C-alpha cells in the first residue's frame, strides 16, 4: 500500500481489547512532520492505550501503526527498537531513576546505547538542562526536586535521545497547580523548535493554543477531529459539546 512519507505516524484500523473489553475500536489518523496533535476526552476513553500502541509499548493490537512508513508490527526486534528510540514518551508519573542524579538520569540511556560518548552526553545534558532552567540541579537527586522540576527533567531525559516525535500522556495531571505552567512552558518552547508532538491533556487552553489538530476520543473511538477552532468553537458533535461544557 502507498504510504505518505510526510506522515511520521500513521494509524490504520487500530483495534485493541483487554479480554472482552474493546478499548480501541477502529482508530485512523496520521501525524505529519512538525504537527502538534492533541488528544482530549473523558477518562477511560482509550487515550493512554492509544499512545502506548503508537510507540509499541503495547504491541498487542490489530491494525497498523506506521512510523515513517515502517509498519511497527512487521519489523524485526532490532528495527523496532530503532524506531521506538525515535519516539520519546513522557508520562503523568515522571518515573525518574530515584538512585541516579539528574545528570545521570539524562545521560544513562544515550551512553548505554552508545549513541554518544559519555563526554558528549554530559555536554548535551547540560545544554538541555539550561534550556529548561535546571542546570543548577544537575547533581541533585529526583526526590529533592519539586514535581514540576522532575517533569522538566523527564522531558529533557527523553529529548537527550534525540527523538523525532514526542508523545506526552497527561504530563501535568500529577502536578500541583502552581507547577503546571512551567511544564507547559517547556512544551510550548519545544513546539516552537518544530518538534512533532502528540499530547494527551486536560489543559484545554493549552490544547487550543498549541494544537494543529485535536482528536476527541470517547469510548474507544476518535469521535471528533479537527482544528482547535472547529473542535472548541464550532463542532456540533453532541459528545464533544457535552465533554467541553464539563471541563471548560
Ligand atoms: P484514558 O487514558 O482515556 O483514561 P485508558 O486507555 O487508560 O483511557 O483506558 C481505556 C480502557 O482500557 C479503560 O476501560 C481501562 O479500564 C482499560 N484498560 C487500560 N489499561 C488496561 C489494562 N492494562 N488491563 C485491562 N484494562 C485496561
Ligand atoms: Mg490516560
Automatic annotation (TrEMBL):
GO cellular component terms listed in the entry, alphabetical order:
plasma membrane
**How does the record classify its membrane topology?**
Peripheral membrane protein
Which keywords are on file for this protein? Amino-acid transport, ATP-binding, Cell membrane, Membrane, Nucleotide-binding, Transport
Cellular compartments annotated: Cell membrane
**Residues annotated as domain ABC transporter:** 9-244
Annotated GO MF terms: ABC-type amino acid transporter activity; ATP binding; ATP hydrolysis activity
The superkingdom of the source organism is Bacteria
InterPro entries, A to Z: AAA+_ATPase (IPR003593), ABC_ATPase_HisP-typ (IPR030679), ABC_transporter-like_ATP-bd (IPR003439), ABC_transporter-like_CS (IPR017871), MetN_ABC_transporter-like (IPR050086), P-loop_NTPase (IPR027417)
Family per similarity comment: Belongs to the ABC transporter superfamily.
Name by which UniProt lists this protein: ABC transporter ATP-binding protein
**From which source organism is this entry?**
Agrilactobacillus composti DSM 18527 = JCM 14202
Q: What is the lineage of its organism?
A: Bacteria, Bacillati, Bacillota, Bacilli, Lactobacillales
Amino acid at each position: 500500500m502507498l504510504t505518505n512519507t510526510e506522515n511520521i505516524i500513521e494509524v490504520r484500523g487500530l483495534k485493541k481489547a483487554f479480554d472482552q473489553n474493546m478499548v480501541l475500536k477502529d482508530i485512523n489518523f496520521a501525524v505529519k512532520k512538525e504537527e502538534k496533535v492533541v488528544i482530549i476526552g473523558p477518562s477511560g476513553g482509550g487515550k493512554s492505550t492509544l499512545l502506548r500502541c503508537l510507540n509499541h509499548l503495547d504491541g498487542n493490537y490489530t491494525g497498523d501503526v506506521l512510523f515513517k512508513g515502517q509498519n511497527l508490527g512487521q519489523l524485526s526486534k532490532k528495527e523496532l527498537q530503532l524506531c521506538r528510540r525515535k519516539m520519546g514518551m513522557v508520562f503523568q508519573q515522571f518515573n525518574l531513576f530515584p538512585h541516579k542524579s539528574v545528570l545521570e538520569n539524562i545521560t544513562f540511556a544515550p551512553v548505554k546505547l552508545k549513541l554518544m560518548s559519555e563526554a558528549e552526553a554530559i555536554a548535551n545534558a547540560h545544554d538541555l538542562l539550561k534550556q529548561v532552567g535546571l542546570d543548577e540541579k544537575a547533581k541533585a537527586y529526583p526526590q529533592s526536586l519539586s514535581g514540576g522540576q522532575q517533569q522538566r527533567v523527564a522531558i529533557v531525559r527523553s529529548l537527550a535521545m534525540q527523538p523525532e516525535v514526542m508523545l506526552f500522556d497527561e504530563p501535568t495531571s500529577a502536578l500541583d497547580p502552581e507547577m503546571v505552567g512551567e511544564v507547559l512552558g517547556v512544551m510550548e518552547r519545544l513546539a516552537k523548535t518544530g518538534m512533532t508532538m502528540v499530547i494527551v491533556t486536560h489543559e484545554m487552553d493549552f490544547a487550543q493554543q498549541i494544537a494543529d489538530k485535536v482528536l476527541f476520543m470517547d469510548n474507544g473511538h476518535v469521535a471528533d477531529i479537527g482544528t482547535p477552532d472547529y473542535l472548541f468553537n464550532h463542532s456540533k458533535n453532541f459528545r464533544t459539546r457535552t465533554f467541553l461544557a464539563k471541563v471548560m
